[in-house]
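ok trying this again, last paste got cut off
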Amino acid sequence: MSKEMVLVEHDIPVQARDKILAWCMIFVAWIMIRLVKIEQIQSLLRILKKRCKQDMALREAKVIASCVHSARRIFWGRVACLETSLSIFLLALLKQRSVQWCLGVKLGPFASHAWIEVEGIPLDEEAKEYRKIITI
C-alpha cells in the first residue's frame, strides 16, 4: 500500500508481543497470497469468520492496524495493501472479532486495492476511490 492508512493512530502504544504476532500474520498472509488461489483464500476466510463471536470495535481495529504497520517495516518481502489488509483480517480472526476484508478496482487508469472496513468505515482513505468486488 503506497499510502498509510488514514485512520490508523500511530500514537497507540503497541506491545512487543503484539508486533511479533502481527509480523507472524504478515508472514502467513505473504505465503498465502503467493501459494494459494484467491478463491481458496476467500473460502477459508469465510469459514473462519463464522467463528467470530462479535464485530470488532473501530478503536480495536486501529490498534491491530498499528501493530501491522509497525511490523511490516521489518518484514523482508513486499508488503502492500493485499498483505497488510489480510494480516489485519487474520489478527482480527485470532481475537475472534469480525471485520470486513474488501478488494476493489477502479478504472482510468486501472488499479486494484485491498482494505479493511470496520463498522462500515474503511481504515484507509484511498478505499473510497475503489468499487468493491469482493467483501468477506
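PB: full thing came through this time. The first helix runs from residue 16 to 35.
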